[in-house]
Amino acid sequence: MNIMQERAAKLNGELQYESDPDEGGTLIQLSFDMPRLEDLLKRRGIEVIEAVGSGEEGIKKVAELQPDIVLLDMRMPQMDGLMVLRQLRKNHPGLKVVMLTTSTNDHDLLEALRAGARGYLLKDIEPDELVLAIREILAGKTVVAPELSSVLARFIQGEDGELQEDKSANPFSALTPREYEILTLLAEGQSNKVIARNLGISDGTVKLHVKAILRKLNVSSRITAAVMAVEHGIRASASNDS
Fold it and tell me: Which residues form a coiled coil (predicted)?
């Protein structure tokens, strides 16, 4: 029985939440496919001060409203959740961010933890357990889905050598589909403005994706990244064929 289940059992399965100023907790929800989540949280005493559906808008709202915690969807349109997480942590180092996802992939969890996430929960979590997890994270703990607790232990112990080995075998494995797509366009010599126009996204979003690509490939310039892509046979036509 995990800590959330233990706390639920102590309350005989009847979880009732009232707004408690000592526990606090103002939350911004960043997700695009869970519209009912806001109401579920509010009914359980979590003050949802904003709910937005895009990463760019979320970054602006966090700066404006200064919440205690952010509930962030791993899969966001235009900017993926990890990119949003890194930007939020860069702008607000003390901010607590909880990733909400359907992914039980070890790599996704480890990337989120390295980027500073304080929670990594699955979207099928029961509402009462989600609230309990949020309370634990506000209290300073790190909470992950029970299915992934062994991965968290490995991360804490620094025993994630297998992940590093996989990355070295395929330097592009850590890229998201959007980052891979942008890398193929970099390999063609396209500028940020041209890439933005071709993909229908903003110039600023392209810049953030390029920064993420450089970091994941461990290179310092877009030229080096483009050369790597060409050397490995990555090209736009190949990505479009599939």
Answer: none
